[in-house]
Amino acid sequence: MNKVMTRTVQRHPASRPPIRRDTRRPGGSPPRSPAAGPTRTAPSPTRHPAVPQPRPTDLFADRLLLVLSGRRPVHAMLRHTVGPAYDELAHLAEHGPLRARGLRPVIRDIGYCEPRPGAIEAFVRIATGDRLRAMAFRLELGRDHRWRCTAVELGGARTRPSRQD
Description:
By secondary structure, the protein is an alpha+beta fold. It has a domain at 53-154: Nuclear Transport Factor 2, Chain: A, CATH 3.10.450.50. Helix content is 15%, strand content 27%. The protein is built from two helices and five strands. A five-stranded antiparallel sheet has the order 1-2-3-4-5. Strand 4 and strand 5 form a beta hairpin. The chain is extended, with a radius of gyration of 23 Å. The model has no long low-confidence stretch (mean pLDDT 79).
């Protein structure tokens, strides 16, 4: 089983976005020599560094945090959850476990493991002020190649008793 830790570097929302380096803009091309006359040259291909795509664990952690902190409604996760995970999420959000006055919860750390191909089990450490909480969730890859949440737990033991049929 491979365990991976992510998000060790905090992103600050107040930081500036990356600078645009477009060679097609004025000042990006070499100056023309007036004696040479008009000539056409093919633009030189420049390699731009690939922008890393966010992992599904990062996206789902952010979405779940927004719902559990009350900043997004539960139905925002309707198409991103499957089966009893939505019911569990609705139950958790109803009690607002991550709501705090004046303090916004922040994701401190995300880790995950892949028990089998197409499944990811992740944990998240969430800080609200000086209080630290834990959240765990499971993602499974569907036939349409989209990740969906199949289980959510917050802070250890389940808050609802399990059904017995």
